[in-house]
Amino acid sequence: MKRFEGKVVVVTGSARGIGFTIAERFAQEGALVIISDIAEDAVQQASKKLQEQGFKADGFVINVTDSSQVEATFKEIIAKHQRIDVLINNAGITKDTLIMRMKETDWDAVINVNLKGTFICTQKVSRYMLNQRAGSIINIASVIGIMGNIGQSNYAASKAGIIGLTKSTAKEFASRNIRANAVAPGFIETEMTAQLSAEVVENYAKAIPLQKMGKPVDVANACIFLASDEAQYITGQTIQVDGGLIMS
């Protein structure tokens, strides 16, 4: 039997990229996966792609910064599928520039989507998980939230905040058998990194003990483990998927 057979897994920001790969891995493990993203066409295409592979998938449009919409969407998911077992808070954006040049609107946008969006989705899903007395919440952070990075102060702050939020969530919900953990990816091969020159990629790899960039499936596999029964005694942790880039 597959590990997530009969389970409902919601992945925000999952119409493409790492989020889609996370959703696909859960689908491969038998879950009914909820593709959620801000663009309706992209949501429909992504959910259809999974369905065409024979997987169980549904799609819902979610703007994670809109509290009322998130609440209504989770209510609709529950009405249609009766439960939510796993929430992966993956939705995120970047608006990079140096602190001296950063507009307040760019700071606010990144904090709102990455950090506030994670808070909103966690808060709205919690009532259902509390009633179920079971659930797993996994927040996608970043090594940038641990080490910082030039030109990414807003992104670093949002991801550091996610790590703190994860710990508080874990402590508040532990008595109801709800676990909360974070995954902090390092340098991962994505559509964006595919545009980098071979020289730039090679220079990045030199800083990584494993001497290579990670793949989206590496992040997805960490999520699978943390949401599974194999990790039933793990909560409040941040798992770095970074090839050894940061060691504490």
Structure description:
There is one protein chain. The chain has 248 residues and is α/β, with parallel strands linked by helices. Helix content is 46%, strand content 16%. Helix 2 (40-52) links the parallel strand 2 and strand 3. Helix 1 packs across helix 8 (216-227).
Descriptive tags:
248 residues, 7 strands
Structural class assignment: alpha/beta
Give me the side-by-side strand order of the main sheet: 3-2-1-4-5-6-7
How many helical elements? 8
Number of strands: 7
Distance between the termini: 37 Å
Task: Using the alpha-carbon principal axes, give the shape.
Answer: globular
The H-and-E topology, N to C, reads as EHEHEHEHEHHEHHE
The Rg value, from CA coordinates, equals 17 Å
Q: Average pLDDT value?
A: 96
**Biggest β-sheet description:** 7 strands, parallel
Low-confidence stretches: none
Helix content: 40-55%
Strand content: 15-25%
Short description:
The protein is of the alpha/beta class and 248 residues long. It has helices at residues 17-28, 40-52, 67-81, 104-132, 144-147, 153-173, 198-206, 216-227; strands spanning 8-12, 32-37, 56-61, 86-89, 135-140, 178-185, 238-241.
SSE diagram, text form:
Elements: E1 8-12, H1 17-28, E2 32-37, H2 40-52, E3 56-61, H3 67-81, E4 86-89, H4 104-132, E5 135-140, H5 144-147, H6 153-173, E6 178-185, H7 198-206, H8 216-227, E7 238-241
Parallel strand pairs: 1-2, 1-4, 2-3, 4-5, 5-6, 6-7
Helix pairs in contact: 1-8, 3-4, 4-6
